[in-house]
């Protein structure tokens, strides 16, 4: 049985807490309690998936404890292998992925799958101030649960990282190229690590995922009825994204629009290629039920930056695409089952693609990122959590804005995250005002806690307004999450909320330092460059 | 005037992409290039060409690599003065959602980075083996060049 390899692998780590967290939900509905998380794979799929079960069992003699620490040796013995992380920590999963890319045998082929807790992940050469609304990301994601009304299990899912009805969102810079994406429990991350040879194309593995989706579409329809499948056609587009068309339900008007179900990003280094993507199978945060559902717009709000009109940046900007869930689930545990089915199907198809039906499947997790277990992974996690990596690795950019009917102009450059040549130009006021602003030079932008000292009081009403503007464009940065929890409320004292309101943009701000309380309404708050 | 007339064509000749005939099949080095101008290739599709003094090497990515990568949209250049070992990452390019590392073919000290690429990353695609060069390096061990591929060897490797 499938339980073989997977449970052997799992036994190494079952004591670890995150595994229990992840699997508690799956085990409620499935019949394999007592077998750790191997439960996810058993009985999940018939036919071809059973064959995969048998294949996996034959490799049960593998010393899975050492697969990761001795990855070179392991991938030499097993040129095709499957790794599956039970960690939901984005830093851990990205560090494991990078470790596999850098240390596996150069000709080996690896499939790695994982699901992250809610987070915003941006590309290697992107600007976080430009790509997302940092203040909103730091505030957290309002978890919408109308689908689960009356269902208590979903609450358990979130208790580990929920506070005041808000789920923390990590802000993470990854090592691969491409744009910004939001992850949550309804996304399965797939990652293919293969030789960067003549066989490799950017579409090759995206088509593998598409073929899995097409197969699974039929399977799910047969088993659960057509209402559980939300897509009609699925393909790889010119941007190497996986796109779908919606299925018309109940005589719905036919929708020919293509929605993105997964992006693609790549990292190429030393003869190796990594292709990963975030497969949106059933996110509770993406509108899947009624029109006008608040969820539909949640993600889009998080990715709309208030800084956009004021920044000129080098590097890579994201291409916005409408997204859609591939499947409908009716219970939270159904989502885990769905993700698990997709992981097995990906593994099976991956083995078939590279003619290795005995590809071992190794289950790994947070424990593998501990300092004592794997120093290299641990150090990579630490590095990715630093603000030096998250913010100072931003490609150079310029900031410029005008205020007070064009009388006041602000501008500075940011290179390696450090502010250069900050200039404040006030047309009808003393030039001495510039001195305060110039004090920004040499400071790291993400470390600026307050703009109070840099904007002179002599601008009277304008001073407060300019400070409010700067704080909305460059909000105070919280340290990277270590445990998926929101930063303590003391840090969030200066919450900013820019909300669309009739008649323009409203900015409400309460500063923790002074007694100023500014409430502005109207377009004049945000001034076009 | 006379000076300018003599120098402009030389500069142009150096900056312009080499004629197609070079890539197409011309295997022997022309006498005008001189035997000292060594150009070598790596398996990671980088090239290094030594200057006439045989001290400073210019590094770039090959025509093949540029084509495989697609439109370059961002280039991360090395810091001048950086000491590197052979195989160290000295920068990166991003193209079509791919972040690709650029490794140094030899050990040495970076003496110059092609700042044009910072503002116009697409220059790499226009002339990967000419105006789209990446960085210059003061080579610390010329012996390392011996281990790299010649044009012929690279062409054979690339076709594999």
Automatic annotation (TrEMBL), chain A:
Entries under SUPFAM superfamilies matching the protein: Class II aaRS and biotin synthetases (SSF55681)
Source organism, top-level taxon: Eukaryota
PROSITE patterns assigned: BPL_LPL_CATALYTIC
Gene3D superfamilies registered for this protein in UniProt: Bira Bifunctional Protein, Domain 2
Protein's pathway: Protein modification; protein lipoylation via exogenous pathway; protein N(6)-(lipoyl)lysine from lipoate: step 2/2
Residue segments, region Disordered: 503-529
UniProt-listed PANTHER family: LIPOATE-PROTEIN LIGASE, LIPOYLTRANSFERASE 1, MITOCHONDRIAL
Designated name of the protein: Putative lipoate-protein ligase A
Organism of this sequence: Lithohypha guttulata
Automatic annotation (TrEMBL), chain B:
InterPro entries referenced in this protein's UniProt entry, alphabetically: 2-oxoA_DH_lipoyl-BS (IPR003016), Biotin_lipoyl (IPR000089), GCV_H (IPR002930), GCV_H/Fam206 (IPR033753), GCV_H_sub (IPR017453), Single_hybrid_motif (IPR011053)
The record's free-text note on cofactor binding: Binds 1 lipoyl cofactor covalently.
CDD domains linked: GCS_H
Subcellular localization, as worded in the UniProt entry: Mitochondrion
Keyword DNA repair on entry: no
SUPFAM superfamilies per the UniProt record, alphabetical: Single hybrid motif
Keyword terms of this UniProt record: Lipoyl, Mitochondrion, Transit peptide
Domain Lipoyl-binding: 56-138
Obligatory cofactor(s): (R)-lipoate
Domain of life: Eukaryota
Purpose: The H protein shuttles the methylamine group of glycine from the P protein to the T protein.
Similarity section: Belongs to the GcvH family.
Oligomer and partners: The glycine cleavage system is composed of four proteins: P, T, L and H.
Protein name: Glycine cleavage system H protein
């Amino acid at each position: 049985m499938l339980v073989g390899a997977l449970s052997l692998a799992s036994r190494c780590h079952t004591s670890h807490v995150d595994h229990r967290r992840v699997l508690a939900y799956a085990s409620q509905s499935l019949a394999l309690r007592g077998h750790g998380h191997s439960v996810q794979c058993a009985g999940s799929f018939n036919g071809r998936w059973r064959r995969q079960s048998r294949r996996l069992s034959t490799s049960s003699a593998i010393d899975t404890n050492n697969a990761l620490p001795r990855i070179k040796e392991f991938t030499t013995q097993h040129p095709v292998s499957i790794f599956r992380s039970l960690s939901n920590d984005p830093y851990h999963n990205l560090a494991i992925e990078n470790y596999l890319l850098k240390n596996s045998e150069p000709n080996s082929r690896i499939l790695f799958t994982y699901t992250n807790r809610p987070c915003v992940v941006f590309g290697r050469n992107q600007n976080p101030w430009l790509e997302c609304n940092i203040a909103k990301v730091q505030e957290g994601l309002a978890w919408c649960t109308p689908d689960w009304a009356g269902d208590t299990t979903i609450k358990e899912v979130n208790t580990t990282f929920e506070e005041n009805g808000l789920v923390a969102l990590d802000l993470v810079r990854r090592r691969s190229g491409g744009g910004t994406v939001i992850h949550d429990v309804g996304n399965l991350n797939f990652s293919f690590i293969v030789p960067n040879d003549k066989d490799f194309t950017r579409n090759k593995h995206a088509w593998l995922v598409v073929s899995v989706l097409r197969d699974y579409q039929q399977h799910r329809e047969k088993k659960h009825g057509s209402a559980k499948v939300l897509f009609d056609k699925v393909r790889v587009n010119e941007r190497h994204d996986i796109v779908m068309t919606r299925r018309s339900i109940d005589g719905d008007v036919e929708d020919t629009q293509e929605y993105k179900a997964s992006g693609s990003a790549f990292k190429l280094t030393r003869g190796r290629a990594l292709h990963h993507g975030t497969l949106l199978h059933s996110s509770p945060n993406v509108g899947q039920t009624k029109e006008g559902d608040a969820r539909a717009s949640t993600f889009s709000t998080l990715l709309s930056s208030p800084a956009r009109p004021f920044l000129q940046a080098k590097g890579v900007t994201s291409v916005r695409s409408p997204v859609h869930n591939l499947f409908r689930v009716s219970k939270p545990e159904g989502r885990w089952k769905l993700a698990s089915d997709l992981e097995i199907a990906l593994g099976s198809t991956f083995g078939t693609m590279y003619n290795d039906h005995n590809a071992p499947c190794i289950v790994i997790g947070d424990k593998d990122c501990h300092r004592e277990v794997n120093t290299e992974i641990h150090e990579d996690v630490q590095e990715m959590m630093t603000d030096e990596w998250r913010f100072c690795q931003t490609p150079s950019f310029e900031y410029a804005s005008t205020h007070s009917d064009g009388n006041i102009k602000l501008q500075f450059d940011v290179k390696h995250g450090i502010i250069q040549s900050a200039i404040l130009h006030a047309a009808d006021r003393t030039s001495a005002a510039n001195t305060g602003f110039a004090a920004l030079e040499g400071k790291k932008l993400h470390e600026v806690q307050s703009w109070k000292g840099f904007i002179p009081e002599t601008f009277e009403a304008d001073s407060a307004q300019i400070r409010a503007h700067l704080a909305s464009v460059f909000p105070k940065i919280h340290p990277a999450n270590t445990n998926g929890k929101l930063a303590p409320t003391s840090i969030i004292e200066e919450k900013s909320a820019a909300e669309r309101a009739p008649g323009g943009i409203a900015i409400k701000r309460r500063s923790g330092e002074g007694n100023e309380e500014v409430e502005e309404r109207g377009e004049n708050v945000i001034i076009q460059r | 005037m006379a000076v300018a007339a003599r120098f402009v064509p030389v500069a142009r000749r150096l900056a312009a992409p080499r004629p197609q005939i070079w890539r197409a099949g011309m295997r022997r080095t022309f006498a005008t290039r001189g035997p000292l101008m060594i150009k070598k290739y790596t398996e990671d599709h980088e090239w290094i060409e030594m200057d006439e003094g045989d001290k400073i090497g210019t590094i770039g990515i090959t025509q093949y690599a540029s084509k495989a990568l697609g439109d370059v949209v961002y280039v991360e250049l090395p810091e001048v003065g950086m000491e590197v070992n052979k195989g160290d990452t000295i920068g990166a390019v991003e193209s079509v959602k791919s972040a690709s590392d650029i490794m140094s073919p030899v050990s040495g000290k970076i003496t110059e980075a092609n700042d044009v690429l910072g503002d116009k990353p697409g220059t790499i695609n226009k002339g990967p083996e000419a105006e789209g060069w990446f960085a210059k390096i003061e080579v610390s061990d010329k012996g390392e060049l011996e281990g790299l591929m010649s044009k012929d060897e690279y062409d054979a490797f690339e076709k594999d």
